[in-house]
Amino acid sequence: MSGRCIVCNKPASLWCSKCKAVNYCCRDHQVDHWKKGHKTQCMILSSNAGPEYITHSTELSSTDNRKALPTEEWLIQPDRVKKMVTFDPTLGRGIGMSNFGNTCYFNSVLQCYLYTKPLVNYLLNDEHLDRCILTKENKFCLICALKVFLNEIHDRDRPYARPEFLYRNLKNIGDFAWGQQEDAHDFAYAVLNSIQKSLLSNEPSKPSFKQEETSLIYQLFGGYMKSVIKCKRCSHVSSSFESFLDIMVDLTGNVTSLEEGLHNFMKIEELDESKQMSIYEAPNVLCITLKRFDIMQGGCKVNRTVVYRPLLSLSRNMSQNSPDKSTDYELYAVVVHFGSSIFVGHYVAFVKNNGQWYLLDDSCVTHVSESQVLQQNAYMMFYQKTYGRETKTNLSKSSQTQELKISSSSAPTDDVMGNREVNSYSTLYSSMKDHELGDSKRQDAFKMYKDQMKNVGRNDQCPCGSGKKYKNCHQTFVQHTITMSDVQAFLTHTFAEGLEDNHADVTNKFHAIVAQLKPDGQKRIQMRKQIIEAAKTSSGSPPQVLDRVELLNDQLFSYGEYAARNGGQQYALFFPDDPKSYDRFYTLLKSAKKTLDVCVFTITDDRTANEIIKAHQRGVKVRVITDDEKALDLGADISRIIDAGIAVETDNSPFHMHHKFCIVDNAVLLNGSFNWTRSASNSNHENVAVSDTPSLIAAFHTEFDRLWAKFAGTVDSGKKEAAAKVVSQQKARGH
């Protein structure tokens, strides 16, 4: 189901194909609603949301009204665009991008654009930079910023790129808030809008609508839809043309392939008049977004697998009299969302470069096979024409009323709780991260959905869309106090006998368990281990087992995100009077799996130094910043850490490095008065505050990276040799 009928409020499976904002349970209600006024409101609904510069389109009659704009008036000549489309810049694979806290949407979309070859070709040219009005006026220009960042993303001497300037200007790109997870499609659209504004700012006079559609953005990403409307009463046929920058594919009706979704988008709609959409002119770069989220259904996500292929032909979707001779496309980038709803989860990008596919997961870049890419539950797909069209038709503005067609990610989609068909073969679901949180608008939607649940009677139909009575749906397993034994019993059943159970049933039962248990961070870790152990004992097929593991992990991650949003995990350690503080401190160091960043005055506590060295030995990327005055002392452990091969930089300024913080896996922050010394561990009254708050971690991570860059190279070969001598002296003294 995609929502509720606007006429009778019953479950609806039909929707208005024009505005995609209203649902119907049957064709009669759709026709009735259309005649009673939706016909006049539909155009308004379809244009409610959209960027300022890229929402207009050109409408024509079906007669002699397609007058081309003289090419000398075009903002960029079509032959230049063709060269950009057909020329391969042959740049090597770039590096990853650091996450500033909930910026995975930001990173994923930018990576896709920075692997869009014709756009890269434009950025490599200095023409815009040389005459940019915005930059000369000290205003933000996204084109100039992307040009600078393109160089950074291909600097292989860096571990990863830091798009700080771009992120600081987030408000200049669109209506986005720092530290909030946003929708990748919304951000992608905002980026194109911001580039368009930068391009138009260089024009001596305000371009007309016709001229705006000859800009670089429209000639690369823009196309024209043709709408043919036939009146059933008089048989009059009229045609209109609407520009577009992407295509939103609805997943209503159990769509299982991209081709099927595109076919549904173009099919004839029968009301008091028939209407059929087709592509009159296809773009050079085609962006397709699947409508996986529905904000009106509590932000639920359609996790159904939709098959897409590396090669795509639009020949079946083109208008009969289309001037386009090239309709074949090749996939080069994909944005994937991991998670069960719009307000939790993690975005990653897959990009193709020089024939090879790579997974770009924030700062991590991993080579993957094409088959792995095609197994993902894609959210956005980027295709480029296999060869560029020679000219772009510019459709002149007619005297008729301008018709706007805005794609919206909030249009209705299927209810995820009844149709969760996850790609079982995906090995990348573990990329989902606990620190990714939702924005306030989506949290409000979630609250609205939860409030709906509270107001439903036990015998009423559950509003989640499962079709069951509420008492048999979300109230399952909540008749007594939930314990970890209930968790084990549930997992044993679901992996031993319940693999064939309906996904919605399993989701609802486990959701009820988690909601009542309210597990903290440690319990969630324990529950994840229980899931893995139960999965190992299952006799089911690997696809079924992986599917169930992902389903249950989604629920745990969702709860963790919501808990973090409402306070997260915060606690304090006190030394020396609380013996548990020592154990918890060392447990946190031992828990490091990927990264361990330490910034302290010195380290003289042997046990602490040993844990740091052990982390390095098990493959954790360890970085230490310390004060240079104590680095090579006989009583300090810094020499031992350097000698172990750990990356260390020292504060060589006239002042002291007085920070005392540590970041574990970019997910947990330790900060306080605690010096990492023997006296701090055994004698002094000290404290350490522990937090998993993403925004706080991001701030400390930024400070660490700033200091790391500032003191880069301070521990040279000479200091390493000196450190080795100190270690020899320490061993001789029995240290």
From TrEMBL:
<dbReference type="InterPro" id="IPR004027">
    <property type="entry name" value="SEC_C_motif"/>
</dbReference>
<dbReference type="GO" id="GO:0008270">
    <property type="term" value="F:zinc ion binding"/>
</dbReference>
<dbReference type="GO" id="GO:0005634">
    <property type="term" value="C:nucleus"/>
</dbReference>
<dbReference type="InterPro" id="IPR001736">
    <property type="entry name" value="PLipase_D/transphosphatidylase"/>
</dbReference>
<dbReference type="GO" id="GO:0005829">
    <property type="term" value="C:cytosol"/>
</dbReference>
<feature type="domain" description="MYND-type">
    <location>
        <begin position="5"/>
        <end position="42"/>
    </location>
</feature>
<dbReference type="Pfam" id="PF02810">
    <property type="entry name" value="SEC-C"/>
</dbReference>
<keyword id="KW-0788">Thiol protease</keyword>
<feature type="domain" description="USP">
    <location>
        <begin position="95"/>
        <end position="386"/>
    </location>
</feature>
<keyword id="KW-0863">Zinc-finger</keyword>
<feature type="domain" description="PLD phosphodiesterase">
    <location>
        <begin position="653"/>
        <end position="680"/>
    </location>
</feature>
<keyword id="KW-0862">Zinc</keyword>
<dbReference type="InterPro" id="IPR025202">
    <property type="entry name" value="PLD-like_dom"/>
</dbReference>
<feature type="compositionally biased region" description="Polar residues">
    <location>
        <begin position="395"/>
        <end position="412"/>
    </location>
</feature>
<dbReference type="GO" id="GO:0016579">
    <property type="term" value="P:protein deubiquitination"/>
</dbReference>
<keyword id="KW-0479">Metal-binding</keyword>
<dbReference type="InterPro" id="IPR002893">
    <property type="entry name" value="Znf_MYND"/>
</dbReference>
<dbReference type="Pfam" id="PF00443">
    <property type="entry name" value="UCH"/>
</dbReference>
<feature type="region of interest" description="Disordered">
    <location>
        <begin position="395"/>
        <end position="417"/>
    </location>
</feature>
<dbReference type="InterPro" id="IPR028889">
    <property type="entry name" value="USP"/>
</dbReference>
<dbReference type="InterPro" id="IPR018200">
    <property type="entry name" value="USP_CS"/>
</dbReference>
<keyword id="KW-0645">Protease</keyword>
<dbReference type="InterPro" id="IPR038765">
    <property type="entry name" value="Papain-like_cys_pep_sf"/>
</dbReference>
<comment type="similarity">
    <text>Belongs to the peptidase C19 family.</text>
</comment>
<dbReference type="Pfam" id="PF13091">
    <property type="entry name" value="PLDc_2"/>
</dbReference>
<keyword id="KW-0378">Hydrolase</keyword>
<dbReference type="InterPro" id="IPR050164">
    <property type="entry name" value="Peptidase_C19"/>
</dbReference>
<keyword id="KW-0833">Ubl conjugation pathway</keyword>
<dbReference type="InterPro" id="IPR001394">
    <property type="entry name" value="Peptidase_C19_UCH"/>
</dbReference>
<dbReference type="GO" id="GO:0004843">
    <property type="term" value="F:cysteine-type deubiquitinase activity"/>
</dbReference>
<protein>
    <recommendedName>
        <fullName>Ubiquitin carboxyl-terminal hydrolase</fullName>
        <ecNumber>3.4.19.12</ecNumber>
    </recommendedName>
</protein>
<dbReference type="GO" id="GO:0006508">
    <property type="term" value="P:proteolysis"/>
</dbReference>
<dbReference type="Pfam" id="PF01753">
    <property type="entry name" value="zf-MYND"/>
</dbReference>
